[in-house]
Specification:
Length: about 650
Amino acid sequence: MRFLDAILGSVALAGLLPDTTATPLDSLAADAAVEVARRALPNAPNGYTPVNVSCPESRPTLRSATALSPNETSWLEKRRNNTIQPMKDFFGHVTVANFDAAGYIDKVSNNASALPNIAIAVSGGGYRALMNGAGTIKAFDSRTENATASGHLGGLLQSATYLAGLSGGSWLVGSIYVNNFSSISALQAETVGSVWEFGNSIFEGPDEGGLQILDSADYFKQIRDAVAGKADAGFSTSITDYWGRALSYQLINATDGGPNYTWSSIALTQDFQDGNMPMPIVVSDGRNPGELLIGSNATVFEFNPWEFGSFDPTIYGFAPLEYLGTKFVDGKVPNNETCVRGFDNAGYVMGTSSTLFNQFLLQINSTSLPSFLKDIFSKILEDLGRDNEDIAEYRPNPFYEFANRSSPYASQQSLNMVDGGEDLENIPLHPLIQPERHVDVIFAVDSSADTTYSWPNGTSLVATYERSLNRTGIANGTAFPAIPDQNTFVNLGLNTRPTFFGCNSSNMTGPSPLIVYLPNYPYMEFSNVSTFDPSYDNTQRDAIILNGYNVATMANATRDSNWPTCVACAILSRSMERTNTAVPDNCTQCFSKYCWNGTVDSRTPSDFEPLRLLGGASLAVPPTSMLMAAFAAAAVFLAA
Ligand SMILES: *[C@@H]1O[C@H](CO)[C@@H](O)[C@H](O)[C@H]1NC(C)=O
Ligand SMILES: *[C@@H]1O[C@H](CO)[C@@H](O)[C@H](O)[C@H]1NC(C)=O
Ligand SMILES: *[C@@H]1O[C@H](CO)[C@@H](O)[C@H](O)[C@H]1NC(C)=O
Ligand SMILES: *[C@@H]1O[C@H](CO)[C@@H](O)[C@H](O)[C@H]1NC(C)=O
Ligand SMILES: *[C@@H]1O[C@H](CO)[C@@H](O)[C@H](O)[C@H]1NC(C)=O
Ligand SMILES: *[C@@H]1O[C@H](CO)[C@@H](O)[C@H](O)[C@H]1NC(C)=O
Ligand SMILES: *[C@@H]1O[C@H](CO)[C@@H](O)[C@H](O)[C@H]1NC(C)=O
Ligand SMILES: *[C@@H]1O[C@H](CO)[C@@H](O)[C@H](O)[C@H]1NC(C)=O
Ligand SMILES: *[C@@H]1O[C@H](CO)[C@@H](O)[C@H](O)[C@H]1NC(C)=O
Ligand SMILES: *[C@@H]1O[C@H](CO)[C@@H](O)[C@H](O)[C@H]1NC(C)=O
Ligand SMILES: *[C@@H]1O[C@H](CO)[C@@H](O)[C@H](O)[C@H]1NC(C)=O
Ligand SMILES: CC(=O)N[C@H]1CO[C@H](CO)[C@@H](O)[C@@H]1O
């Protein structure tokens, strides 16, 4: 223990005071060559530490959010074209009786604005959300074994334009994209010492072997040094820096948690540039200056491969992601300032979207970690102050004095970001309902822990709907289908099976995608594990992923043999409307079965405690009320 204590140094770990005695990590250089061979994207100039670089000849600038970025617009031309063949393949095995869906795609294929435009959104909810969401992505991925058999939905991922994630869902999106569009099966197949080994909690760090040459002491030392390096270079740090670093060891398939991986480097990979995968988006909320509570008027930000920013009127602008950390004033880099690169560390982006899990660090006293580590983290938390324990600090604020100077953000040197689910919009729909993106259908995976026993009850959709009602205010022209209250969700069972919202496009305040709501539900596994359970062995992980696969496919269409057809109809609905194509009878039947028809039943329901639909052996019993009580205090604050 004394040995470990000496290595770590309690003051330096705080990252708040300069640590003049810290030595660079000597093991890094030796591993660099290995890492370059593994991945194509470790392009940060100096690992986790942002670095001053000379600005390119045309200095980076912010742009207004009036349109999509030129990068996205030109990328979309390739991507939309590249979804044509996957959609035809998809409709080869997901069919609509008496309607040639593949032929329809062929017919409209030379007209991008007629083609269906598909998005997938994966909610927050910690590891539960990562695993349940992974089940859906696995079901939608044509690379998954048997996923293109009858009754399955493989190929929907390849047909999609956008894939958004938030909080625990951002860990999933990051795991896929930072690891070269890795499949879920490949992530599951990784072994000891590599990624997705959730049996080793964030408190222990990875096992030795595989990628890692670390023991727990090295792990904490590396995290300490990485954050101290950023602080020493003059950048503010917060708990989220430690959190993001720790997460990276579980999610990024590279040695030492891949400190060189940036989120913006996703845009530089050839496969992405060729439009061979959907565009990833991660969502995070801004904490309004001077406010501690995150309400429905919080500004919602997105990280996409090129940019960081928001369509909300409070910001209404985007900064080039690669140059985050650069001092912008009114959207420009002043002549006497240099540019900064390496701020958009991939783990930091995922950490920013999931700052609720700073709670993991706050709960450090209940772990079996050595007491000196508890003391060190307690000291960090104390120094930051309770008001700031759930933020990621973005300083300098790229939107300083930007365009809308009456915005409270414009006068702030620092931007305080929080978990994307803290405004209760726990499904990252915001980027996907922007009219400029013209999305037709969103497959919305909800792994929220809304009810007493950690099942979703529609709270997230309600929050997005209510926000959309302020069209001239914070919603800034976005629209959303009408959504009933949560009691109705429970009483009508809308959270026990897929439900469509917005089937009738005339029953909306403006153009909005059709929402295919996919709530977490027990098929063969109680997948309602606690948001704050930090560790899962691979057996439980794989069981929850398989359960998620069943949620998406309705148990490979055994719960409803028509389900794949209904998915096809949801995909085609808006497109058929645009091309004045008569709705096939089978689709009409699907819509009458799956669309919420406007009925409400707002009586208070009793506790929602679903049984496993498929029965059979389960690994876990549903969490008892006693266990849940342990998390009750946190749950009040955390809807995720
Ligand atoms: C990160 O990149 C820098 C510059 O390319 C390199 O010197 C360093 O060894 C890299 N570190 C790792 C861990 O790959
Ligand atoms: C992790 O990296 C190794 C080495 O490049 C590669 O063989 C493996 O497929 C990667 N795994 C994932 C899930 O990306
Ligand atoms: C994005 O677009 C800008 C301006 O059109 C261009 O300079 C930049 O290289 C693009 N970024 C990427 C990663 O392609
Ligand atoms: C569209 O994709 C097909 C192959 O999928 C390719 O042959 C064609 O050149 C692409 N067209 C455009 C305009 O990119
Ligand atoms: C795929 O289907 C085959 C044939 O039905 C079956 O033997 C195999 O176990 C399936 N694989 C998976 C991963 O379900
Ligand atoms: C957000 O709403 C709260 C409560 O309604 C209000 O006090 C606050 O001023 C609002 N903030 C902004 C930035 O509109
Ligand atoms: C650039 O000039 C501004 C305004 O004079 C000043 O506040 C800032 O500190 C200067 N930056 C540097 C790096 O010298
Ligand atoms: C852990 O316990 C110690 C001693 O009771 C206390 O001082 C410290 O604040 C606690 N840390 C946290 C993060 O709650
Ligand atoms: C729905 O979830 C919210 C929390 O998100 C909770 O306050 C409410 O009581 C729940 N209602 C029902 C009917 O489950
Ligand atoms: C709508 O948004 C505006 C600006 O954000 C705010 O001032 C107003 O109070 C909001 N209205 C409602 C009903 O929430
Ligand atoms: C849409 O339908 C719902 C439920 O019937 C209704 O309450 C709402 O007012 C309608 N909205 C519009 C814009 O037509
Ligand atoms: C459609 C709409 O209302 N757009 C507005 C969004 O916010 C910006 C900045 O306040 C306005 O300029 C747009 O008109």
